[in-house]
C-alpha cells in the first residue's frame, strides 16, 4: 500500500469489544467524545487518553483536563468506565504508542482500539502494531478533522518514512 493510499483511504476497524480504547492527542475533531461513546456502548470499560504537556492552546488543554477529571463515567447500562490520562514521555505518535503500550501491558490488556483522525489512521496502526503484542484496531471519528487532503498527505508521508526507518518500540 502506498503512503498516499494509506493516508487518503485508510482501513478503519470497528471491533465488538476490546480491553481499552486509546485516544491519541489531537484537537478540532470529536475523537474524545467518540472514544467515550464507544466505551459507553460496550466496546470497552476503559479509555486511555494521551495528554501531552500543554502547548500554546489553553482552551484545548482545559478541555482535556476536564475530560480526564471526569472519571469514572457511568454508562446507561450502569457500567463504570474508567478514563485514565497519561502524559507521553515524548509528545509524538511514537511516544504515545510506546507509553500507551506500556500502560496496557501493566494493566494486563490484550486488545486495543485507537481513535484518531482519518489521515493518521494508517500510521497510528504501524506504530501501535510495532509496540503492542495483541490485536490493535484503529478507527477515525464520525466528524472528520477539516484538514485538507493535500496537507494530510504531506504531513503523513514524512511520518511514514520515519515509522519505517525508526520503529516506535
Number of domains: 1
**Which CATH first-tier class would you pick?**
Alpha Beta
Quick check: average pLDDT? 85
Give the helices and strands as they follow along the chain.
HEHEHEEHEHEH
Low-confidence stretches: none
In the CATH classification, which architecture applies? 3-Layer(aba) Sandwich
Strand content: 15-25%
Per CATH, what is the topology?
Rossmann fold
Major beta sheet summary: 6 strands, mixed
Q: Number of helical runs?
A: 6
Shape: globular
Q: N-to-C terminal Cα separation, in Å?
A: 22 Å
Radius of gyration of CA atoms, rounded to a whole number: 15 Å
Strand order of the largest sheet: 3-4-2-1-5-6
Strand element count: 6
InterPro entries: DUF218
Organism: Dietzia lutea
Domain DUF218: 21-158
Protein name: DUF218 domain-containing protein
Topology summary:
Elements: H1 3-8, E1 20-23, H2 31-40, E2 46-50, H3 58-69, E3 73-74, E4 80-86, H4 93-107, E5 112-115, H5 121-131, E6 136-139, H6 149-165
Parallel strand pairs: 1-2, 1-5, 2-4, 5-6
Antiparallel strand pairs: 3-4
